[in-house]
Design goal:
alpha/beta; 16 strands; 15% strand
Amino acid sequence: MLSRRSFILSAAAVGALPFHSAFGAVNRKPALALIGRGKQGRDLLHQFLGQDVVVRAVCDVDADRLADALKVVRDYYAAHPQLGIPPDSCRAFTDFREVLADVSVDMVAIATPDHWHAYMAVAALKAGKDVYCETPLTYSVAESKAVLEAAKASDRIVQVGGQLRSGVEFRTAAMLCRNGAIGKVRCVDCHFGGPSRPHRDFLDPANAAAEGAPNPRVDFDLWLGGAPVAPYSDQLSPRGVHDFFPSFWRFDDNYANGACGDDGVHHLDIAQWGLDLDASGPVKVVKSEVPVSSDKTLGGRRQSGVELHCADGAVIRHNPPGRWGTVFYGTDGIVAVNRGAFALWTGKGGMPDASVRAAVEKGAPDGMSRVSLWYEGAAGANKSLLDAVNKAVKAFKLKKAPVQLYKSLNHVADFVACCAARKAPCSPAEVGARAAILAQLCNVSYVHDAGFDWDPAANACGAGADVSWFARPVYRNGWTVR
């Protein structure tokens, strides 16, 4: 059994910390710290407040978001006195290093911009914390390898925020593929937006004065961390409390991998789940032949069309956003899935062409027999998503199928339960790292307009690529991920 060191502290530590004075060291609830209080962090905070943990600390570089997070936690505990948790037991920090130095914190949830994920995850593991980290787990392949090494060297639990794996429609789609319901999978289409873009300080250069107006409420140098020096921009770190997902940094070369690392990593993750590639990956990256975008702000980059070729001949292809997130094309059928959408057709199939893809988009591939279908507004659809899923499950007797996949109904609850049981969760470090690598391979191919060989065992490039493409070239201020 793995160590429970982070769950049970010594009497000496209890005496030194007011938090433990209130609860005692034996059989106490595990203590969680949230790092990053943007929109995703806000949603995570509410989810963790409903779990069997104590939110011990909140952390953000923006003083207004930090104060709001602290108020949310304290108001929650004040409104639920039956929990026996003093509202003032939660503390606020600007610097995440202070959170990791607090021995009373057992687990951390990381919901920062992507360029911080790997550093914080590795540092938290080294500090003896269990880690929940939002996707993508890393910014680069080199960081993915560093996180994998840190996770293997640790006895800590890591759950990556690949929440689609906790969706019944996605698990069912992967189960159908893994159990041969659609024959041999020849192609998987993943639908999401384009790659990252060359760095720009401001969304609108003509509005730079307003976007870059001084903001004494944020420690922007700490927001940047290891990224190159840049002036403050309220497009990168929105002022105060907000209820939207900032897109500017998500599409900036300095901080993220565009839609490849945003929604793309989720659908690529489902592709690797259905293809049984959780511990492996593609062997070749084939560059896109889609015309280069005419939008100058996109840096002369193609926006879709990269293909990841697997050793067994299967192809994972990046297509533009559409009705479906992930579509599996097999020799005996097609499975299509998205958030709240599911379809299964059987019949002779194989590698799709443009006409087949268009028919699937409309929910009616020619020559196929529909087993089940659900999306909002679909003609002749099943009664509900669950009804469509259950029809597929029954048709192929998946409950007794030889391949059974990890079942999680709630990603956050799964993490908390696995921390208590000291067992691997739904989306552990290797799954999250390899999903991030798929996203990074796509993005690197677009950025350098190149195809190349890939070694999934070593996570290293071969012919056609430069090794420097897969690591951040410079880490500022010593924020190197090791």
